[in-house]
Amino acid sequence: MDHQDGKTALVTGASSGIGREIAGSLARKGYTVISCARSRESLEQLASESRGHCLPLVVDLSSQEGFETIRAYCDERNLFVEVLVNCAGFGAVGHHVRHPPQTLAQMCRLNMVTTSELCAHFGRHMREREHGFILNVSSVAGFMPIPYFANYSASKAFIRSLSDSLHEELRPYNVKVCCLSPGPVRTRFHQRSNPNYNGDENSLFSLSPEEVAEAGLTGLFKGRRVVIPGVANRLCVWLEHLIPRDLVSRFLAFKSAGRNLTD
Asked: Which of 6, 9, 10, 162 could cross-link with 31 by S-S, CB 3.0 to 4.6 Å?
């Protein structure tokens, strides 16, 4: 079966950045895309640009009710989601002990818990039909411990491990699971994470959301286990495996302090 036959996809974090580009790309491929995010205005603009192929679903996936809202929406309409893209997520820079517990809990729910719930719910349907695709968006940060970005990097390591496991669990049922792990992307992610950020989102090593989205979808439909867009990012991950983990952590702590990310 061709990957466009099911015609229904679901993308979280679809209001901006990588998620928005993935939703738009899937719409152009002929899918009806359930586009999930908190921003109604951005989702309605996406729906207009896609000529109605992107259906806006306003939902806060960092809340306890987020998953149930999506599940009910799809069940009530008897929709089979052929392509699931978990892209929603956020980070918070600074000393872990200074973050409010509520912020850390919301990050864990959005970055990990809701992703796991959506993979279980829609992955079960895909397994029954013996067809489907799941793209989970992690980060290069998930390959290494990053001081002053501890909760975020840990949450993305969870996504890596979850995706690797599901890739093998669902492979016998013709369900492809891929983990997209980008490095710096030209979005406002780090600016939202830390108002004092003066880093490299526009550096020579950063990629556009369009490039990352295209790499992720290409890898997903080809059945790849992991996609790391950009030669420099793949080199960083390779080097991380060669260098002792404590040295990696110390170097990243020093680098963060130099960028005023430790306040």
From this structure: 9
Within a domain: residue 1? no
**CA separation for the pair 25, 111 (Å, rounded):** 23
Tens digits of residue pLDDT in 94-146: 899 999 999 999 999 999 999 999 999 999 999 999 999 999 999 999 888 88
State which residues form the domain around 149: 8-258
Our count of domains for the chain comes to 1
- The Cα–Cα gap between 150 and 144 comes to 10
Distance, CA of 57 to CA of 250 (rounded, Å): 42
Residue 189 pLDDT level (bands cut at 50, 70, 90): low
Q: Which amino acid would we find at residue 242?
A: L
Burial of 72 (0-12, 13-18, 19+ CB in 10 A): exposed
Q: What percent of the chain has pLDDT over 70?
A: 84
| CATH, residue 18 | 3.40.50.720
